[in-house]
Write a structure and sequence with these properties.
Number of helices: 14
Helix content: 25-40%
Distance between the termini: 36 Å
Mean pLDDT: 95
Low-confidence stretches: none
CATH topology of the largest domain: Creatine Kinase, Chain A, domain 2
Structural class: alpha+beta
CATH class of the largest domain: Alpha Beta
Shape: globular
CATH architecture of the largest domain: 2-Layer Sandwich
Number of domains: 2
Strand content: 15-25%
Length: 448
C-alpha cells in the first residue's frame, strides 16, 4: 500500500529526497529517522520499525532505565500521519511528518505520548466537546564567549523595544519560516530575562497545537543557529534572571460554540468552564510531575516570577498558576491559561493530562474555590489555610510522588505509559543528583 497520490505528488513536485518520521519521547527530545524517497513506499503506511526501548531513552544519554518497563526487546512502528506533512524551508530536499506508534498487530502503542493525547481527545468527543490550545513560546538567545561561558545576546528587560531591535532579523526569519510551514504567528516581545524573547502562535485544535510545538522548537533552534546564536528553551539558564516558561492556553467548544464564557455574566466563567477548571486545579500538584518535569523546572517556579507557586486560580492574575484572562469585548473570557508548564514537558502529555484532569472536574462536579484577586504570594500561612490554598510542590521528587498517587491521571495514562514515564523521570533525577548549576546547564542547554 502506498501513500495517497496527492502527498506523493507533493514530494515529487518539490524534489524531496528524504522524509523524516518525527516524534517526541517521554523526555521531550525531538527524535526521528529519515527515509529516502526511493524507499518511501515500503514504509508509507506502516512507518519504520524501532525497538520499544526508544521511548524510554533518557534525557542525558541513550540509556533505557530498567524501572521504565521498556527494553530493547520488542518492536513498534512509527506510523506516519500524512496530514502533518510539511516542507521546512531550511531543509531543502527534506520533508517531515509526525508519527503515531503502533504495535505489531497495528494497534496504537500505549506508550506513545501522541497516542495518549488522541485517546483523551476521544474522551472529549464522547461528551460532544473539542479542545483548542496554544502555547506562549519563550526562549533565550545565547552565545559562548572566548572563555566558553554562556552569555545572553542582549541585556534588555520585559517588553523593552531594544530587545526586539537586537534580534529583528532573526525574529523576522523565524516568523516567516513558521508561516511557510502553516503556523500562524501572532505576537512577539522581549521577555524579562536578558536575551529572552517570546513568540506567540495562534491557537488551533489540540493535537495540531502539540504538533506545532515540535515544529516551533526545531525551527527556532535552526534559524537562530544561522544567525550565530543558540536558542535554548531550558527553563533556567541564568540564576539571576527570569526563567523560561511555556504557558498553555486552552478552551472547550461544542458545535463551534466556545463553552468557557458565561453568556449571562460578562467576563465570568460558564458552569462548564468552572467545572473543567476545578478539575485542573484539583489535580495541579500531581500535574506538576508532567508540566515541570526536570530539576531545572523548579528553579523557575519562584514567587514573584509570574508563573504561580500557590495552588489557586484568578481572573487576570499573573501570579496564579491558573489564570483566566478576560477581554475588552465579548465573548470574555475565551480560554484558561496554565502557567507552570515549561518546554521540558512533552506537549502531548501536558495537553492529555489537562483533559483528563478537567474531565474529572466535569464528571464529578468538583467545587471550584473562589478566585484569588490579590497576589497570592503576599498571603500568610493563616490566609492560605483560611482560603483552603496550599503551596505547589517545590521539587521534582514531590511532584512525581504526587503524580504516582493520583489515580485519575495514572488511570488516564494507563499502566504502560505511567510506569515508563515515572521510571525515566526518576532515573534522570537520580543521575543528576548533586550536580552544580553550571554542570546542569552545560548538559541541558541544547536538549530543549
Amino acid at each position: 500500500m502506498t501513500m495517497a497520490a496527492d502527498w506523493k505528488s507533493r514530494l515529487e513536485e518539490h524534489d524531496i529526497r528524504w522524509v523524516r518520521f518525527v516524534w517526541s519521547d517521554l523526555s521531550n527530545r525531538i527524535r526521528g529517522e529519515a527515509i529516502h524517497i526511493d524507499a518511501i513506499d515500503s514504509v508509507a503506511s506502516t512507518g519504520p520499525a524501532f525497538t520499544e526501548g526508544l521511548m524510554g531513552l533518557m534525557l542525558l544519554w541513550d540509556h533505557v532505565p530498567p524501572e521504565s518497563g521498556l527494553s530493547p526487546v520488542g518492536q513498534v512502528w512509527a506510523r506516519p500521519d500524512w496530514s502533518t506533512l510539511r516542507l521546512p524551508p531550511y531543509l531543502p530536499g527534506h520533508a517531515e511528518i509526525m508519527t503515531d506508534f503502533v504495535t505489531r498487530d497495528g494497534e496504537p502503542w500505549a506508550c506513545s505520548p501522541r497516542v495518549f493525547l488522541k485517546r483523551m481527545i476521544a474522551r472529549l468527543a464522547e461528551r460532544g466537546m473539542e479542545m483548542a490550545a496554544s502555547f506562549e513560546n519563550e526562549f533565550h538567545l545565547v552565545i559562548r564567549d572566548e572563555n566558553g561561558s554562556i552569555i545572553p545576546c542582549d541585556h534588555s528587560n520585559y517588553a523593552c523595544i531594544e530587545g526586539l531591535n537586537a534580534h529583528r532579523e532573526l525574529l523576522d526569519d523565524l516568523a516567516e519560516t513558521l508561516i511557510a510551514q502553516g503556523i500562524s504567528v501572532q505576537a512577539c516581545h522581549a521577555e524579562a530575562g536578558h536575551g529572552q524573547v517570546e513568540m506567540v502562535i495562534k491557537h488551533r485544535d489540540v493535537l495540531g497545537a502539540a504538533d506545532q510545538q515540535l515544529v516551533f522548537r526545531e525551527t527556532a533552534r535552526e534559524i537562530s543557529a544561522r544567525h550565530g546564536k543558540t536558542a535554548t528553551f531550558l527553563p533556567v539558564v541564568f540564576e539571576k534572571f527570569a526563567g523560561t516558561g511555556c504557558h498553555v492556553h486552552f478552551s472547550l467548544t461544542r458545535d463551534g460554540e466556545n463553552l468557557i464564557p458565561d453568556g449571562a455574566t460578562p467576563h465570568r466563567l460558564s458552569e462548564t468552564g468552572r467545572r473543567f477548571l476545578s478539575g485542573v486545579l484539583h489535580h495541579l500538584p500531581a500535574l506538576m510531575g508532567i508540566v515541570a518535569p526536570i530539576n531545572n523546572s523548579y528553579r523557575r517556579l519562584q514567587p514573584g516570577m509570574w508563573n504561580g507557586t500557590i495552588q489557586c486560580w484568578g481572573y487576570d492574575n499573573k501570579e496564579a498558576p491558573l489564570r483566566v484572562p478576560t477581554s475588552l469585548e465579548p465573548p470574555s473570557p475565551t480560554n484558561i491559561e496554565l502557567k507552570t508548564n515549561d518546554q521540558a514537558a512533552n506537549p502531548y502529555l501536558t495537553l492529555g493530562a489537562i483533559i483528563a484532569a478537567g474531565l474529572h472536574g466535569l464528571d464529578e462536579e468538583l467545587p471550584l474555590p473562589e478566585s484569588v484577586d490579590v497576589d497570592p504570594n503576599v498571603l500568610t500561612e493563616h490566609d492560605l489555610a483560611t482560603r483552603g490554598l496550599s503551596v505547589l510542590p517545590r521539587d521534582l521528587t514531590t511532584s512525581l510522588n504526587l503524580l504516582e498517587a493520583d489515580t485519575t491521571l495514572i488511570e488516564a495514562m494507563g499502566p504502560i505509559l505511567s510506569k515508563a514515564y515515572l521510571g525515566v523521570k526518576r532515573y534522570e533525577l537520580q543521575a543528576q543528583d548533586g550536580w552544580p548549576f553550571e554542570t546542569e546547564i552545560d548538559w541541558l542547554l541544547t536538549a530543549f
